[in-house]
From TrEMBL:
Keywords: Oxidoreductase, Pyridoxal phosphate. This is Glycine dehydrogenase (decarboxylating). The lineage of its organism: Bacteria, Bacillati, Actinomycetota, Actinomycetes, Micrococcales. It is an enzyme of class 1 (oxidoreductase). The glycine cleavage system is composed of four proteins: P, T, L and H. It comes from Rothia koreensis.
Length: 956
């Protein structure tokens, strides 16, 4: 039987030998020794104490099954922002468990992302309709951080009140209040937390954040509050529940400027706290301040509607420290599920589900009232809070005996939250736990007419056309067929590590024993989860050489923020709070600078040398100038230029001597695992992208997981717990600021990384890094004669990725790197990373999962494109009418009755012979991005828009 490692690695043994021959090395060890500086390299044989010996796929599945069996699946009525829901099987099988959806990349290349972009546009439109707002993003990381982002957005967008405070409703969820408190204290925003039922505080306010449904379940009419806030020139955000909005008046109708919330209960499992797709929706005029991703509508080269990411997408890479947010990863896969849930059920289905939930809650309330039990509130949607003086523990225990988890608020109050799958029999068990029985008077708890919405919503045909499972299955297949994901082709994106997401790694996340555990459930019900998390923390510390790990950050950008926060708090506790400057190389990821500013630090750029490495002379100048104020430096290693910098240990030494801490960005850790450990060659803190190095799939742009790993002195400053529960963190945490609302972040996808490490083992991890380096250097060697490799190390080798310099060919031909990206679509390839970190270049990362045939297919495509560029450069074709400039080519264009282009249809559609065996047909032509931003549309076009007559001249 083949081992998992043999299945994970693309090249076979004989292919590895032939590739090494091309590079002139006798073994993978010799290649790694030549590429990785000796000053940081681990010795051979591998020594990674604490890592398991590799298990077979069958053995690992049996082991993780035993962990799952240690979790106790109860009826979850705890609520607090997490609700039991039903994931329709057609969505689970065709989205969550379908590699066509979960292996796709963020849709920065829109032509090959039309399916996932349409699915995300459905999500946006559902949120817009339900909240009554004009624009919504797709999506945010969780509800609590969305609330914090809304506060920051109100301060930034309010031009009438410059130095005011923000009033925050004390009835918001506890984790929301905790996250807001932490984010705003860092940014110097004054917060007034108050029960807004008593009116606005007597302060100068730039913003107000109110709750539509309080943490105890009360439904709140904010109409008068919004009017009063606007009269004082304050903006208003409302935290809401989108499922409740199938019944309740929308925030937009109440006059709000912003609405925030989570779509978790739209078919997304509890997942022990995440990942869940949150959102921010705004009125028109605030869209350019909106964080996260926006899907918009433009047109393609044939004049047809086409979807694309719009406006501020990836603005961190342009604005850096002036960016409005460090949000980079979304929760795209979960947003797709939530949007598809809305499509499947439609407005009638959502209303029916919402009415059934409220009816069950009213049934519960009537029984409690008939039993003489006081209710804290009589206007509620799904959550009933009962007042039971001194009896809360007894009630919770009695319900648990029936297999039901309730929320203990304090000694005297118990909360019960009703979800979609809950039954009247279960509610009878809850009533019995309170010492009450059923009652038929639930009409006494009907929602007041003033709180009910009167307007229509979800009117677009997409929310009405897919009620049968057959229709829904085919719609999802139609969307997936429009996309290029890892199940079709190599995705050679530099810095993004699009590697195999093995089926055996993915399988456990759907198991109820993992998926249906509430993050606030008693810890004895989650022993399997806690053991898995402890294993993963130990393994990651062994791999990185650090002392402790927090798995809380639910994106790489949030890991950056958590690490910088730890550095900041460390200095402050040592009485050096004036250390407020972080040095960041000019070539660094844009989120580095944005995260530093969010952490209350100031950014100073460090120049890079011609070879892409940090310019030591400039670093020394900056250390001399800012030494007393130095908090630390952020380094991406291997560098953003795709090389192992020889001077990294010297950089770390200089920064430490100046009193700073070293943040080693783990985005490129796939080139280090088993070869070198950042915690051993100078790093004090790193974030690790589990959605890159450790096989959690990208899911069209999320979920991401960005754990933060730290040296001993920073371990006390790992993220705290927003829910303030006694969770085990694996470190002596001071319970400092939380960065995500769930203590273990996006725990639901952690089994993927657990399985990967368990099946790979320590020695296998080293092999994955070595083959990643092999594949990258093979591509670099083969392509260098066509497009020179811009940066290499002293041995002439790259790390796990290489930058191809297209600028000489662009200068001679006029064909740009973007043209090359579009032409690659005709070959069935996702484009490499475009214009980062150097304009006019492509950054290519093949990963270790791609075999020699796929690498050679990419080389063949690039060689053919070089020949086409040469034709332009030598005058045999004109740039503006060339096959490159007109790419990509749709089947519709190629089969048109007339063809007057200067190249043949065959050369456009089948540029190399192997494409005749299997061909991806792009659904749209080249999209006009600039027009899309000038004429911003972020809602689903009417169906008629797709039925236009094709203007053949426009198609030219």
């Amino acid at each position: 039987m083949m081992s998992f490692l043999e299945r994970h690695l693309g090249p076979r043994a004989e292919e590895i030998t032939s590739m090494l021959d091309v590079l002139g090395y006798d073994s993978l060890d010799f290649l790694a020794d030549a590429a990785v500086p000796g000053s940081i390299r681990r010795g051979t044989p591998l020594e990674l104490p604490g890592l398991p010996e590799a298990l077979s796929e069958h053995e690992a599945t049996a082991r993780i099954r035993s962990l799952a069996d240690r979790n106790q699946v109860k009826v979850q009525m705890i609520g607090q922002g997490y609700s039991e829901t039903i994931t329709p099987a057609v969505l689970r099988r065709n989205i969550l468990e379908n590699p066509g959806w979960y292996t796709s990349y963020t849709p920065y290349q829109p032509e090959i992302s039309q399916g996932r972009l349409e699915a995300l546009l459905n999500f946006q439109n559902a949120v817009m309709d339900l909240t009554g707002m004009d624009i919504a993003n797709a999506s945010m990381l969780d509800e609590a951080t969305s609330a914090a982002e809304a506060v920051v957005m109100m301060r930034r967008a309010n031009r009438k009140v410059k130095n005011g405070k923000v009033a925050v409703d004390s009835r918001l969820l506890p984790q929301t209040l905790r996250i807001i408190e932490g984010r705003t204290s860092t940014l110097g925003i004054d917060v007034v937390v108050a029960d807004l039922s008593h009116g606005l505080p007597d302060e100068d306010l730039f913003g107000v954040l109110a709750a539509q449904i309080g943490s105890e379940g009360q439904v709140i009419d904010n109409t008068d509050l919004v009017e009063a806030a606007h009269a004082r020139n304050a903006l208003v955000a409302i935290a809401t529940d989108p499922l409740a909005l199938a019944l309740l008046v929308s925030p937009g109708t109440q006059g709000a400027d912003i609405a925030i919330g989570s779509t978790q209960r739209f078919g997304v499992p509890l997942f022990f706290g995440g990942p869940h797709a949150a959102f921010i929706a705004v009125r028109r005029g605030l869209e350019r301040s909106l964080p996260g991703r926006l899907v918009g509508v433009s047109t393609d080269s044939s004049g047809r509607p086409a979807y694309r990411l719009s406006l501020q997408t990836r603005e961190q890479h342009i604005r850096r420290e002036k960016a409005t947010s460090n949000i980079c990863t979304a929760q795209a896969l979960l947003a797709v599920v939530a949007g598809a849930y809305t499509v499947y059920h439609g407005p009638e289905g959502l209303r029916r589900i919402a009415e059934e939930i409220h009816d069950k809650a009213a049934y519960l309330a009537a029984g409690l009232a008939a039993g003489g039990i006081e209710l804290a509130h009589t206007a509620f949607f799904d959550t009933v809070t009962a007042v039971v003086p001194g009896r809360a523990d007894d009630v919770v225990a009695a319900a648990l005996d029936k297999g039901i988890n309730l929320r203990r608020i304090d000694d005297d109050r118990v909360g019960v939250s009703v979800g979609e799958p809950h039954t009247f029999d279960q509610l009878d068990d809850v009533l019995a736990a309170f010492g009450a029985g059923r009652s038929d008077s639930q009409q006494d708890f009907d929602l007041p007419a003033s709180l009910l919405r009167q307007d229509e919503y979800l009117t677009h045909p997409v929310f009405h056309g897919h009620r049968s499972e057959t229709s829904m299955m085919r719609y999802l297949r139609e969307l997936a067929d429009k996309d290029l994901a890892l199940d079709r082709t190599m995705i050679p994106l530099g810095s993004c590590t699009m590697k195999l997401n093995a089926a055996s790694e993915m399988e456990p996340i759907s198991w109820p024993e993992f998926a249906n555990i509430h993050p606030l459930a008693p810890r004895d019900q989650a022993q399997g989860w806690l053991e898995l998390i402890d294993d993963l923390q130990r393994w990651l510390t062994a791999i990185t050489g650090y002392d402790a790990v927090s798995l809380q950050p639910n994106a790489g950008s949030q890991g950056e923020y958590a690490g910088l926060q730890a550095i900041r708090d460390y200095h402050r506790d040592r009485g050096e709070g004036d250390r407020d400057i972080v040095l960041i190389p000019a070539s660094a990821h844009g989120t580095n600078a944005a995260s530093a500013v969010m952490a209350g630090l100031q950014v100073v750029s460090v120049a890079t040398a011609e070879d892409g490495s940090i310019l030591l002379d400039d670093l020394k100048d900056k250390l001399d100038k800012y030494g007393q104020r130095l908090a630390g430096i952020m380094i991406t290693y291997p560098s953003t230029h795709g090389v192992y910098e020889e001077t990294v240990t010297e950089v770390c030494r200089l920064v430490h001597e100046a009193g700073g801490q070293v943040y080693l960005d783990g985005a490129n850790l796939n080139a280090l695992v088993g070869l070198a450990s950042p915690g051993e060659f100078g790093g004090d803190v790193s974030h690790l992208n589990l959605h890159k190095t450790f096989c959690i799939p990208h899911g069209g742009g999320g979920p991401g997981v960005g754990p933060v790993a730290v040296a001993p002195q920073l371990a006390p400053y790992l993220p705290g717990d927003a829910a303030e529960i006694d969770a085990e963190s694996g470190a002596d945490s001071k319970r400092v600021e939380a960065v995500s609302q769930a203590f273990f972040g996006s725990a639901g996808v952690l089994p993927i990384s657990w399985m990967y490490i368990a099946m790979t083992g320590g020695e296998g991890l080293r092999s994955t890094a070595q083959v990643a380096v092999l594949n990258a250097n093979y591509l670099a060697k083969k392509l260098n004669d066509f497009f020179p490799v811009l940066y290499t190390g002293p041995s002439g080798l790259v790390a796990h990725e290489c930058i191809l310099d297209l600028r000489p060919m662009t200068q001679s031909s006029g064909i740009t790197a973007e043209d090359v990206c579009k032409r690659l679509i005709d070959f069935g390839f996702h484009a490499p990373t475009l214009a980062f970190p150097v304009a006019g270049t492509l950054m290519v990362e093949p990963t270790e999962s791609e075999d020699l045939e796929e690498l050679d297919r990419f080389i063949e495509a690039m060689a053919q494109i070089h020949a086409e560029m040469t034709d332009v450069a030598e005058g045999r074709a004109k740039a503006e009418t060339s096959v490159l400039r007109m790419a990509p080519h749709t089947a519709e264009v190629l089969t048109a009755d007339e063809w007057d282009r200067e190249y043949s249809r065959a050369s456009a559609g089948y540029p190399v012979a192997r494409l005749r065996r299997a061909k991806y047909w792009v659904p749209v032509g080249r999209i006009d991005g600039a027009a899309g931003d000038r004429n911003f549309v972020c809602e689903c076009p009417p169906i008629e828009a797709f039925d236009i007559e094709v203007d053949e001249s426009a198609a030219e």
